[in-house]
Design goal:
Elements: H1 8-15, H2 28-40, E1 45-50, E2 55-56, E3 59-60, H3 67-72, E4 78-82, H4 91-111, E5 114-118, H5 141-144, H6 151-165, E6 178-181, H7 200-217, E7 223-227, H8 236-239, E8 251-255, H9 268-285, E9 288-294, H10 304-313, E10 322-325, H11 346-354, E11 358-359
Parallel strand pairs: 1-4, 1-10, 1-11, 4-5, 5-6, 6-7, 7-8, 8-9, 9-10
Antiparallel strand pairs: 2-3
Helix pairs in contact: 10-11
Protein name: Mannan endo-1,4-beta-mannosidase
InterPro entries: GH, GH26_dom, Glyco_hydro_26, MANB/E
Keywords: Carbohydrate metabolism, Glycosidase, Hydrolase, Secreted, Signal
Length: about 375
Amino acid sequence: MNRLLLSASLFLIFQSLAFAQIDKNATKETKALYKNLGMLAQDHILFGHQHATEYGHGWVGDEERSDVKSVTGSHPAVIGVDFMGLSGRPEAEIVRTAEALRKNILDTYTRGGITTVAWHFANPASGGGFYWKDSVSVAAMALIKPGGSHHEAYKKTLKTIGNLANSVKAKDGTLAPMIFRPFHEFDGDWFWWGKGHTSREDFIAVWQFTVSYLRDSVNIHNFIYAFSPDNKFNSEPEFLERYPGDEWVDMVGMDNYGDFGRDGKYNLEAGLKKLKIVSAYAKKAGKLAAFTETGLESIPNPTWWTETLLKTLTAEKLNLSYVLVWRNDTKSPTHYYAPFPEQVSAPDFVKFYNDPYTLFEKDLKDIYK
């Protein structure tokens, strides 16, 4: 029996929920994805992996390959890409990066999968890359907001993103939708847009301008906008401390490695509490919710997938659209977050894959209709 059979009653239940996208002119396919993600979250969660089809443990650029597919026979349902290379580099390199991104996004869309976009945005006003580096980095959020010294340069970067977003056209002429997740983990200090380097007011001003400019000036109508702090909150007010407002966000999420085994430390009760805060706010505000990043580097725990991740996700009703684990580095012997054949957690990952609660790319049917 197909794991994705959706009953008419489930559709009616979803229709009664007050989900509304912030882009009233979103493409038909983007609206369909938004609604279907909300509907599927009633009984399932989609599995995602960052850079899954671009490279993996010991390989790069192989057609139709992913480490997840090598273990389960299916790509992840959600595949993460990054807009990191669309600014702060020579123009020719930006063009090459955009072309590679375009192919990856279109390939995923054509197969029926979903793309989510992270943005490790290099500091536009100083060196230091996307990380904050003392004595090198400058507090640039105040500089790229409207009226700031680097605002025009920021608009140029957004136009580059817009050009890519408006170029991911399938053979039938439709644009591939994307979940766009800018300025993530903003409650930490490791990125230059982090809490210690910008005021609440400047963060919100940049967020609102970013959405408005992409949607209303550059005419991007295939984005679902996701808001995702790290795990430094313990209450709804803390979670929403830098929230730009319901009219500026489509999806709320959380990145959380710390409660799920990083450095050998597990606090699954705290992790579940935070996921409940995210899910409850999404339901109240008519938003989608997701576990936007997690994972255990090197996955030394052979039952992490079922006994840590799945057990937490199913402990209570959460209504999360997807869970994404981080990337598998092509060269590092230890920097990977999804299993590959012969990795110690691979058998448990197959159990995770076979659980009716989890959905992978092969399970998705007409997600854009």
